[in-house]
Every structure is written in C-alpha cells, then in structure tokens.
Amino acid sequence: MKSTIAFLGLIFISLLIYNCSGVKKSTVTRDFKVPEFKPDPASTFLSPRESMQTMHLPPGYRLQLVASEPMIKEPVAIAWDGNGRMYVMEMRTYMQDADANGEQEKSSRISLLEDTDGDGVMDKSTVFIDSLLLPRMMQPVGNELLVNESNTIDIYSYSDTNGDGKADVKIPVYQNDKYVVNDMNMEHQRSGLDWNLDNWMYLTYDAVRFRYTNGKMLADTIVSGSSGQWGMTHDDYGRLFYSRAGGEIPALGFQINPKYGALDFPDQYNAAFAEVWPIIATPDVQGGLPRLRPDQTLNHFTAPTGQSIYRGDQFPADFSGDYLVCEPVARAVRRAEVVHQNGKTTLQNVYQNKEFLSSSDMNFRPVNSATGPDGHLYIVDMHRGIIQQGNWTQPGSYLRQKIDSLGLAANVGHGRIYRIVHEGSKRTEKPDMLNRKPAELLAYLGHANGWWRDNAQKELVARADQSVVPALKEIAAGKRTFVRKETGHLERIHALWTLEGLQAMDTELLITAMNDPDARVRKTAVWISEPFLKSGDRTLLEQAGKLVQDTDDDVRVQLLLSLYNSKSDQGKTIMNQILEKGQTHEMLLATKTALDKNENVRTFGSRLGQMDEASRKLIINGAGIFKSLCASCHGADAKGLAIGGAGMAAPPLAGSPRLEFTEKNNLIRIVLKGLTGPVEGKEYTSIMPAMEANSDEWIASVVSYIRHDFGGRPPRKKGEVPGMAPAATNNESGFPVRKISSPVVTAEEVRKIREESATRKTAWTIQELKPEQQE
C-alpha cells in the first residue's frame, strides 16, 4: 500500500548527496520548536479544520485536507490508478465498539475519489466496491483493481465497464481453498500487494509473492517466510521495507529481498530510534504502565504501520528516499533517513526527540502514508478513538479501562486523508496513463516522481505489447533518453525491468548493463541476469566474473545473491572469489549466512517424510501460522527479535523449558490462555495474547510445529533407537513397524486442555506452570 518520487532538477542534486553504497548527507534542519506538552488530553471530537490546528510539522511544511467524512469513513489505505483517481479502502466495521460487535459483517467498501478541478481536494466520490469484509489489500492494474478481503487469501479483479465509477465485473485471479487463515484476529492477516520494481507483488505475513500475468496471479513461495504486519513499501531500487507492530519493530526486512532469506542486523538502527515522541499523554496503550514514561507518553513504538519511502519531486532534495512510518498510538509519523554504506542499510530519526508529524488530537490515528502522482506526501487518518483490535480490549484489561474512562469508543465512522506540501511545491500535470499508447508511456520511465515511473512500467508490463521492445532496449543501453543525462540511471533501470516483465531480455543487453557507469544499473543487470546465471550461461558468467572486482558493495552483494544457487563450476568459483575477497565484509558474510539458512529451510519437507499424512498436515499448517503470526514477536528462528537495542518484545522459544518434549500440555495452556509476567526472570514489552478463539485444530497445528522445529527431543529408554518408538505391531510383510516418537499434538488433546481451563479468565504465569512429569 505505498508509493514513490523525485524532481528532474532535484534528482541531479540528490545524486550529489546519495549513491548506491555511499552515505546520504542531509542538510535538513533537525531542530524545531514543538508545542507545549498536553498532559491531560481530552477525547473530544474535532472537525477536520480543528484537528489540523493540533498537528505540527517542521518549518516549510503544511497540511491540506484532501477528503473527510461523510465522503469516506474508516479509511486504512489509498492507491491511485493510472489516471490519478484515488481508491480508498474503508474498514467500516472495524472496532465500532470496545467489544468488536458486528466486525465480521460485510459492509466495508472501496471508494473511488476524483479531483475534477485540479485544486488537490477530492470533489467527486463513488462507491467502487460495496459489501466487502474488511478489505486487506488492493492494487490498481490498468482498468482493474485487484482486491483481497479478510479471512481469505483469494484475490479478485474488479473493473468498471460502463464508466459510472462502480465496479460491474468481478473475476477471480487467485484462489486457494486449502489456505489456513487466522480468522479470529483481523490484525494478524496480510497487507501489501505492493508491485515492486522486479514486477513481483509482495505482501506481509504470507510466505508468497505474486506476478500478474494473463489475468492470473502466479504465486511464488518465499521459502523463509515474509516479514511485516500492516503495511510495506519499496524504494527506487526495489528494496522492500516492512514493519511489525506485534514485535514493536518500526522497520525490518530491508537488507535483502525476502526470496533470498531473512536478514536483519541488531544495529540497523539504535535503541534511540525505537523511542517515539508524542506531544500528548498517551494512556490508551496495550501493555499498560511499562509502556509509558513518567510523563505518561508512549516510550517506544507499539503500532508501527503504513510505511512509505518518499520518492517525490515536490520536497527538498534531502527528503528524497527517506522512510516514513505511522504510529497511531503516539498520534505521530516518523521520518527516518535511510543510509546505505558498505552494502548495509541503516536508519536514523531525522529529528532528535521529535517526530516529523505529531498531533494533540486524541482521535488522530495515522495508519498509512503514500507518495501521490502530484509528488506530495499523503497521510491516511482513520480518525477514531479505539485503534486496538478486540482481542486486546477485553473487559477488565488495562486498555479497556482507559477506553471506557476516556470515552474513546464514542468516536467512530470518521476518517480523513491529508497531503503534506512544502512551501516550494508547484502544481504538476494530472496523469493520463490509461489513455496513452504504449510508446507514449516510455517518456515516464525516467520521470522525477517515482509514482510515474512505477506506473509506466506496470502499465507496459500489464499490456504485454511487444511493439515497444526495440525502444526499451535503446533506453536500457543508454542510446535513447527522455530525461536529463544525469538522471538517466533510473530510466535505464525501469527500462530493464520492463523488458524483464515483457520477457524480452537478451544476453547482449545484460552485458551492456553490467558495464554501465552507474553501479545501480550494474546491480540491476546482475539481479535480472539471475535465471541466466543459474542455468550456466557462459557468456554472462564470464561478464559476472569481472564484477568480483567491482568497487560497489551493492553490486558484489547482489552477485553473491544471484550466484548462490548456480549449478555451474564457473558460478561457484565466482561466488567463492567474492567471499574470499570479503572475509571481513560484514554485509557479504551476513548475506552468505542468510542464504545458507534459507537453503536449509528448503529441506524442511525431508524431515517430515516418515510421518503419517495427518501429522505432516498439522505441522505444515502450523509452520504457516507461526511464520505469519508468531514470528512477528518471537522471530522466524524462534530466537526472539532484538533490533535497535530496545530489548525483545517476546522471549525466545528455542531452548525454552516449555518446549521440552514432555511439556506439551503446558505449551497448549499458554497458547490457549496466554502468558504474562516475567519469563526466566526477564520482563518483555509484549504480552502473549490468548489464542483460544481459534479452533482446536489451529492450536494443535501451531503447537505441533513449534515442538517439531524448536522443541526438545523425546526421552530415550534403554535399547531404544533414537527418534523411534519400540516396535509394537507388525505389518503385512511380518517386519516390525517402528513409529517415530512424534512432537505432534492432536486437536483432541487441545480440546481436553481447553475444557480443563474453561473457567480461567486470565493469562498464565510461569510460576503457575509446573513442569510436567515424564510418562
């Protein structure tokens, strides 16, 4: 759910302060005055104009109202079609009271807004799709809108064939009846569907990415799982940025593409970055007092969401490429500088002890951000009292007490969309891409605003018109350009990826691109060459071998990524040369480790080979649940998430006494009812929530997977073969049948523990869970 940008004149300046492996040097004024702190804010409803008066930005920036209620209600995401019309995703049943009554009703929608007079304010609105169940994802492609709803992975294409602004055609483009979804908690479901530079659409939670071809979404498994929770984005060069509200992590997953594995550094930002700086007291926080400073302000991220990279052409050059992430509990939006150095990416808050946008309106709930076709930064304000899902607002909870005492449940059915403009902003042309011929779209591949570049590429790939291939090859080779020579690297990069999307790439052009004077183009050429390199193309391998000496770190890292699975001796030799030269190179070594772990995950199925089908199914389903839900706090490897030096949100599972082979009932108890308090003497920032709303089979699946992958091994008796139970029966051939001692927990075992603890209303503590006796 994100966007783009950069002005022809400004891009040239930005090239002087930013390069692929260098440090971006900011000239921004980092200090500015914030309003007086409000220790006792009221939840009083404010009109859009009144609310805007409570919002504060650095000097030179100001807010403009784009749309508000009654035109829109409960907005969570926006996207523009090729003609600049805005789709607004509205979750109209989200937390209409503290008990989430009616949340599963199909009365949400996607609206289509238009600015007919060019003043930046939406003045025309139609309901494009009605009667939806809490829509999760959308992506405009040509005259279609791809949409996914809650509680399903199915994706449908909607289109308007008579021009009335309402969808009248609905076609399934991806369906998966076997998908296991956590339909009891709408916070723990996918988002995104971000069309990245590489022509794949990425999403959060689910370990899959999609490519839209011939009216169908083709799925590709991401072996080590995806990242993130609510929202994701990409930069000019295809780097993806996720966040995890569950793990209280404002940014992660941005070191390498997730298809290669998971890689995050503990120091990719420091502990100070994890702190947030509201300008009002923030009492309504899940987790209670440990989450607050003495002045009652939120002390660090708890709900990072709706991130974007500013890629526009209307802000000062030092804003280009900066990372924006919303924090609706803090009523603020963070602006972070993205620094690339030695192949590694790090983040730092642009402002010391301040946020880019902050408000003293308790109902201001920024949940998403995006760069628009006009080059401005858009903020989606859900504008409501309650921002936590019903699992965390149960009667008797700390948060419920605050919701009731402050009257936060009263404010529902509102919503605003703002755009942030700079005093140097200028009016820009309105896009008309859907009406342009393919040859006319070529001029936008090097546009100063990344939104235009992305959408020109997407349109060309979606139309699959081969007539533009010769011109694209000229652009990619630098023989033809529609932009200033100094900014042509972006044009060449998009031309290369457009050719890749049209399946029109050739070896000669890739060799030319590998010799491009700009390192970012060379890196792109290696990335696109990957299928050729894996298949052992000798000509390309010879050219790739020369890049071992490349002075740019990102080029060498991409070379390692793209050659890792090469079957040829030549490819393996090049990879070894890279590693030999980079024996002290942090990013290269970490990338190799991530690739090794990813490859190990590929062999996961072999460990299940001797299990019966029902056991395999439980564990495989549990793996999907864990990677999409539990990994947000515990980490994909179950070792916890420690990023930024701010401590872990949840304890590591690997090595936990609760995962000893005989401890299955205690593990079931924890998953059913939750866990609170210190674990092994340590406090954690998050509380393990109760999962009892899910089915017995759902609980059994995730517990079985955790025990299988991270738990202890069964105790051995004298003379017993490791991992095998004593023979008890014979098969038809007369040979003994040995059954594997299984970590699997059955739905029936879960049911028994559920009945046993049916009257319990609170989470367990470690002290209450006595070690179980071995049977």
From TrEMBL:
Could you tell me which SUPFAM superfamilies the record lists for this protein?
ARM repeat, Cytochrome c, Soluble quinoprotein glucose dehydrogenase
Q: Where is this region: Disordered?
A: 714-739, 756-775
Keywords (A to Z) from UniProt: Heme, Iron, Metal-binding
* Domain of life of the native organism: Bacteria
Q: Where is the Cytochrome c domain?
A: 617-710
- One Pfam family recorded for the sequence: Cytochrom_C
Single GO molecular-function term? metal ion binding
The protein, known as: C-type cytochrome
